[in-house]
Amino acid sequence: MGKLLSNFRTTFLLSIVLAGVMILSFGRIAPGGFDTSFWQAVLRWVHVVAGILWIGLLYYFNFVQIRVMPSIPAELKPAVSKHIAPEALFWFRWSALVTVLAGLGIMLARGHAYAAEVLSLGFAGGLVDGDQPFTLMGIGTWLAIIMFLNVWGIIWPNQKRALGIVAVDDDAKAKAARVAMLGSRTNLLLSLPMLTSMAMYQTLFS
What we know:
About 80% of the residues lie in helices and about 0% in strands. By secondary structure, the chain is mainly α.
């Protein structure tokens, strides 16, 4: 057992297999079997797993790496910037993509009318009493999309310059590091309102 757990890839693949067994078990006992609701549940599972990885890494960057980097001795900083940060950013950006795609998939699986209400903040067909939950869910959805676009359009391009993945001069590297930091802090700012929207809506109105 110790040998198995010592290998990250083996441990993670086994976890996926065990989760797959549970997912299939749920499908076998679900009232509708492997119907649309089942696949919506699968998408929600993917959405949650990828979201935990995405937001977890966002919090790692903001709670740990950005705050601690200034106090790390200069000779040790390359270990972070050349090895840890690029690996973390790989999982960060791709988990953001999977999270958003799975979330949009869940929304569409619930029907085009539901998707239109959420994306229009409840204004599809006119805002009437009872549409307010769509407004709050829509705010969370658009915050997540903005955060995703921020990851791919601002944070990652600037991190490539700051980390030396793309060669630039020292002034451009320093500027890129600051822009990436501000982009990451923007996502930190938006993360709790976004998560509040998702969690509260699913508990109270789903």
